Amino acid sequence: MIALEALKALLIGVVEGLTEWLPVSSTGHMILVDEFVKLDVTPEFLALFLVVIQIGAIMAVIILYFSKLNPFARTKTPDERRSTWRLWGMVVIGCVPAAVVGILLDDWVNAHFYHAYVVAAMLIAYGVVFIALERRNARRFAAYARGVESGVVKGDVPRLADGSLDPDGLFAVRTVDDIDWRTALKIGCFQVLAIIPGTSRSGATIIGGMLTGCSRTAAAEFTFFLAIPIMFGWGLVKIVKYIAHAGLAMDSTEIAVLVVGIVTAFLVSVVSIKFLMGYIKRNDFAPFGVYRIVVGVIVLGYFLAKGLAA
C-alpha cells in the first residue's frame, strides 16, 4: 500500500518539477495526472500535498541561485551586497499584485474557473501568445543583426562564447539585476493572470517580462525568484489550514507520500531549471507555445469525450 502510493507521489513529483518552471502550466498537467494517478488519501491531505511539494521545487531555485540571492555572503563586496538587497526589493514589489489578488480572489477563482475546459482554453491561448511574441522577437532580432552587420548598431554588442550574436542583446533589460521597480511591478501584474488555472505562473511572468523589455534570461530568472515568497507563503497557508482542520497527525502512508513528492519535485526541478536556462541561450519559447496548444487540445478532447460518454 505504502509502496504504491509512494510510486504515485513520485510520478506527481516528476510532473511538478518539470512543469512548475517550464512555461507549460503545472495545473494543466496535474488535471491529466489526477485522472489516471489518484492518491488514496483524504481530500484535505491531497490539497496540502499538491501545494507542499512546490516547496521542494522552490528549494531547487534557492540552492541553484544561493550565491546570487544571499546578501550576507562574505565573498561579496559592499556593492554586490547592495545589489542583492536591491534584487530582493524588486522581488517583493513584483509579488505585491499577486499576493493581494490571491488573498482576495483565490477561493472564488478556484470555485468558478477550476475546470478542465478553462484550463484547456488557457493552455491554447497562451500557447498562441508565445508563438506570436517570439515571431515578433525573431523579426526584431533579424533587423538587429542586419544593423550590427552594417555598422548601424554601434558600441558593445553582446556575443556568445562562439562569437555569434547574443539574442539577449536585443532587449533593454539584459540581466535580472537591470530590472527596476516599474518593470518588477509590471511583471507582478502579469503574474496575477496566473490565478486563472491553466495560465502557468512562469508562462505569464515570462511573457510579461519580455513585453516590458526583459531578455529571456532576465525574464526567466526573475520568474524563478518571484516564486520564492509566493510559493513559500501559499505553502504556509495550506499547512496552517490543514493543521486547523485535521491536526498534526499523519499516518505512515501520508508521510511517505509527502517525503517522496517533495524530494522528487526538488531533484527534477534542478534538472528542468538548468535545462531551461541553457536552452534559452540559443533558442526561444515558441516550441513551448506549440507544446501548450497540443496539451490544451488533448485536455479539451479528453474531457469532451468523457462528458459525452457519461
Automatic annotation (TrEMBL):
It is a multi-pass membrane protein. It is found in: Cell membrane. It catalyses: di-trans,octa-cis-undecaprenyl diphosphate + H2O = di-trans,octa-cis-undecaprenyl phosphate + phosphate + H(+). It is an enzyme of class 3 (hydrolase). GO terms for molecular function: undecaprenyl-diphosphatase activity. Its EC number is 3.6.1.27. The chain crosses the membrane at residues 45-66, 87-105, 111-133, 222-243, 255-276, 288-305. The keyword Membrane applies. One of its GO terms (biological process) is response to antibiotic. The keyword Phosphoprotein does not apply. One of its GO terms (cellular component) is plasma membrane. It comes from the Bacteria. Keywords: Antibiotic resistance, Cell membrane, Cell shape, Cell wall biogenesis/degradation, Hydrolase, Membrane, Peptidoglycan synthesis, Transmembrane, Transmembrane helix. Its main location: membrane. Bacitracin is thought to be involved in the inhibition of peptidoglycan synthesis by sequestering undecaprenyl diphosphate, thereby reducing the pool of lipid carrier available. Catalyzes the dephosphorylation of undecaprenyl diphosphate (UPP). Confers resistance to bacitracin. PANTHER family: UNDECAPRENYL-DIPHOSPHATASE. HAMAP family: Undec_diphosphatase. Belongs to the UppP family. This is Undecaprenyl-diphosphatase. It comes from Slackia exigua (strain ATCC 700122 / DSM 15923 / CIP 105133 / JCM 11022 / KCTC 5966 / S-7).
